[in-house]
């Protein structure tokens, strides 16, 4: 079986204000990197629109209505609607956000049906900061959490794990997973840094949250130690039926929004280690989705390293 690349041109139509780091050029850089000859074997799929029933598994109805109706209407009138100082919507944002969430849902369905081994969802806006009742941090809907809960509630996988190596802590995914012992969230991230969550003391209702914060300036050795000492053992003990990866590449040393010193080999190593546990515990079932990464060259090469590791698992 093969690795799928799931994306959609509508994800380019989420227009952020001039100078905003989360621009459509990010996705263009990722897709350009994945046009290389070595990736010719990827199964390329268009992301469907996520239905409202999928969104409701992760988000409160009031919050969904705010995005799909209130802010969407304002964006249609004014060209932009500002949710907070970092997070805004344009007229194309609803379609982009529904395709981004729909990509992860589709990845679950393709993996569950045995048509693919795993999937990488090259989408935007990103998702892991979106909490159950609040969009924030460049994120509208929590794509990974929506897909994870689809895997449990629709596809029938009982134990779901998310591993997040974005440089920013995925407060939204933690918020959605915190009270459910059958959902594991494991993150390594820079601390202190936005959004200010992700302390080791944040453990979840049943010890199902694992945070391994790294100080500014930490390098690949510290990153790998966090995985080897905490995240990978926790993931293995949890024995998931399906694994998701919040694949942010802003811990790269070239990234302008943080101060970690990773490179492409670190992301490839982490991906391969997660794949090894997936092969042992859950038949290799993995769906990954793009989160952060704001230096375009580093983002493209890091995403390529990540997909290369997925496809070789």
Notes on the structure:
With 313 residues, the protein is α/β, with parallel strands linked by helices. The chain has one domain: Histone deacetylase domain (Arginase, Chain A), CATH 3.40.800. It contains 9 helices and 10 strands. The protein has helices at 24-33, 52-56, 61-78, 93-112, 143-153, 171-177, 220-238, 264-281, 296-311; strands at residues 3-7, 43-46, 81-82, 88-89, 118-121, 160-164, 183-190, 209-214, 242-247, 286-290. An 8-stranded parallel sheet has the order 2-1-5-10-9-6-7-8, sandwiched between helices. Strands 3-4 form a two-stranded antiparallel sheet. Helix 8 (264-281) links the parallel strand 9 and strand 10. The longest helix has 20 residues, at 93-112. The chain starts with a strand and ends with a helix. The mean pLDDT is 98.
Structural features:
313 residues, alpha/beta, Arginase, Chain A, eight-stranded parallel beta sheet, 9 helices, 10 strands
Net shape: globular
Strand percentage lies at 15-25%
| CATH top level class name | Alpha Beta
Strand order of the largest sheet: 2-1-5-10-9-6-7-8
Question: Which helices and strands occur, and which strands form pairs?
Answer:
Elements: E1 3-7, H1 24-33, E2 43-46, H2 52-56, H3 61-78, E3 81-82, E4 88-89, H4 93-112, E5 118-121, H5 143-153, E6 160-164, H6 171-177, E7 183-190, E8 209-214, H7 220-238, E9 242-247, H8 264-281, E10 286-290, H9 296-311
Parallel strand pairs: 1-2, 1-5, 5-10, 6-7, 6-9, 7-8, 9-10
Antiparallel strand pairs: 3-4
Helix pairs in contact: 1-9, 4-5, 7-8, 8-9
């Amino acid at each position: 079986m093969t690795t799928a690349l799931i994306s959609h041109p509508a994800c380019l139509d989420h227009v952020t204000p001039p100078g905003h780091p989360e621009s459509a050029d990010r996705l263009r850089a990722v897709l350009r990197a994945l046009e290389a000859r070595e990736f010719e074997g990827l199964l390329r799929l268009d992301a469907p629109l996520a239905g409202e029933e999928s969104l409701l598994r992760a988000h409160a109805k009031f919050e969904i209505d705010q995005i799909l109706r209130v802010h969407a209407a304002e964006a249609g009138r004014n060209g932009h609607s500002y949710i907070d100082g970092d997070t805004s919507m344009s007229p194309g944002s609803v379609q982009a956000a529904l395709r981004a969430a729909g990509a992860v849902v589709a990845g679950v369905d393709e993996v569950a049906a045995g048509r693919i081994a795993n999937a990488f969802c090259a989408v935007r806006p990103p998702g892991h900061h979106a909490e159950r009742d609040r969009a924030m941090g460049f994120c509208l809907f929590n794509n990974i959490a929506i897909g994870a809960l689809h895997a449990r509630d629709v596809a029938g996988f009982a134990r779901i794990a998310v591993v997040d190596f974005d440089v920013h802590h995925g407060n939204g995914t933690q918020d959605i997973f915190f009270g459910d012992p059958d959902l594991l969230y494991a993150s390594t991230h820079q601390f202190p840094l936005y959004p200010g969550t992700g302390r080791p003391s944040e453990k979840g209702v049943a010890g199902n949250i694992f945070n391994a914060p790294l100080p500014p300036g930490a390098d690949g050795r510290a990153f790998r130690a966090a995985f080897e000492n905490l995240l990978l053992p926790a993931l293995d003990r949890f024995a998931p039926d399906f694994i998701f990866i919040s694949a942010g590449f802003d811990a790269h040393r070239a990234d302008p929004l943080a101060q970690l010193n990773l490179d492409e080999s670190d992301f490839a190593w982490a991906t391969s280690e997660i794949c090894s546990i997936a092969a042992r515990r859950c038949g290799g079932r993995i769906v990954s989705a793009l989160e952060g990464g704001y230096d375009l060259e580093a983002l493209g090469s890091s995403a390529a390293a990540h997909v290369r590791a997925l496809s070789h698992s």
